[in-house]
Amino acid sequence: MKRLEKFPEIKLDRKAPYPIYRQLADLLRQEIKNGRWEENEALPEGRELSRKLNLNRITLRKSLDLLEEEGYLYKIKGSGVFVKRIAEPDTSYPNMGNKQIIGICMPQTIEHHASAVMQNASIEALHNRNYEVIRLLYYSPEVRRESVEFYREMLSGIILSAFFAHGVDDILKFLKTQSITPVIIGRNYYDSGYDFVGMQEKEGALAASEYLGRRGHSRVAIAIPRISSRDMLRLDGFKEGLDKHGCSYEIVHFHVDNTFRDENPILLAGRRIGKKILAARKPFTGVLCGNDLTAVGVYLEMIENGVSVPDDIEIIGYGDDEEMHALFPGKSYTLSTVRIPRKRIGRKAAELVCNRIENPGIPVQQLLLPTKLIHRKTTAGS
Predict the structure, then answer these.
(1) Which residues pair with 302 in a beta bridge?
(2) CA distance linking residue 211 with residue 269, whole number of Å
(3) Percentages (nearest 5) of helix, strand, coil residues in the chain
């Protein structure tokens, strides 16, 4: 019981687009670094900890396994899980010399390769302009705010992802009290007075739906989550193009379960949608998906049940994320999709923040970069 009393209060954001097991691992890693436990001290027993955190044991075990791989924990069969490595609390800033420093606040986990593409493009562009970079924690609004506050005295600017907008306004209010130049990526902050760079969300969706409309599709499924204004823009574009061509469609909203599973939860949602499409009394001839992972799930369900793609049904995703292609049989570039210019967005964000720091009086720039429909093997072609 004493072990459980010593365990910190943990806040996990179940609505965040990051796996719960990684959120927990991040928080426990920081507690270990800050010296909450002595070296070789045992953590609470698994069942107790699962109940306290309201997590299934598979998710908990995944977090602990990750920390064991990193060298923070070790296990003794029949005895439990113990703290292996203790580090002094990190209360000092890294030494960056005389260079100005930009904070980058974007998703960083391995599951978010798409964000990593933008982030790496920004870092490369900032280094080319002779700026240093600090990666700020992102996965929940509270952690984002704490991370920005911790580094506030050394930051000249920040590139802030607003693809998941909850908590962004709070950070922007805080930045107004500091001498930190923000540039926003993702969400359109026209009224904020800040520089931002995003993409033409609706226009990309419109191109995809107009393609299916011109092809004369009789019934189209629109698969999209209820997460953000970004998804709603894509939905508007899908509907507008189909309405223009008089196509019948059905909107399938879905919930993403971020507790740990053997497969990605968005991919699983796509498979569930694929099953609904197969079970429909009136057949669908086209599918528009709000992201690539959902489209991959639908595609896999179709081919595993003998449906010919694109002859019987055409499928279009959104994103053109390179890691999606590895999920296809033979790892071929299969999915037709709307391409997001992620590298260009990252580079442009870096350019905007550097320009603003170096020339504070220049006009605010608010840019939407073009998206593009890419035809591959899940559509019949342009």
Answers:
(1) none
(2) 25
(3) 40, 20, 40
Q: How big is the chain, counted in residues?
A: 382
Q: Where are the alpha helices (DSSP H) in 54-160?
A: 57-70, 113-128, 141-150
Question: For residue 156, which of 363, 365, 361, 360 has the smallest C-alpha distance?
Answer: 360
Task: List beta partners, residue 155.
Answer: 101
Using N-to-C axis directions, what is the helix angle for 20-33 and 57-70, rounded to 10°?
50
One pLDDT digit (tens) per residue for the chain, 382 residues: 566 667 777 777 776 656 788 788 888 887 887 778 888 888 888 888 888 888 888 888 888 888 887 788 888 888 888 888 655 444 444 555 568 999 998 875 434 566 778 888 999 999 999 999 988 877 667 777 888 888 888 999 999 988 666 678 888 888 888 889 999 998 666 667 899 999 999 999 999 999 999 999 999 999 998 766 788 899 999 999 999 999 999 998 876 665 544 467 788 889 999 999 999 999 999 999 999 989 999 999 999 999 999 999 999 999 997 666 666 666 567 899 999 999 999 999 999 999 999 999 999 999 999 999 999 999 997 5
**Cα within 13 Å of Cα(212), Cβ side:** 37
Q: At CA 100, angle to CA 359 and CA 160, rounded to 5?
A: 75
- pTM, two decimals, is 0.75
Q: Is the alpha carbon torsion for 297, 300, 306, 310 positive or negative?
A: positive
Q: Could you tell me which residues come within 8 angstroms of residue 298 by beta carbon, excluding any fewer than 6 positions away?
A: 223, 270, 271, 273, 274, 277, 287, 289, 315
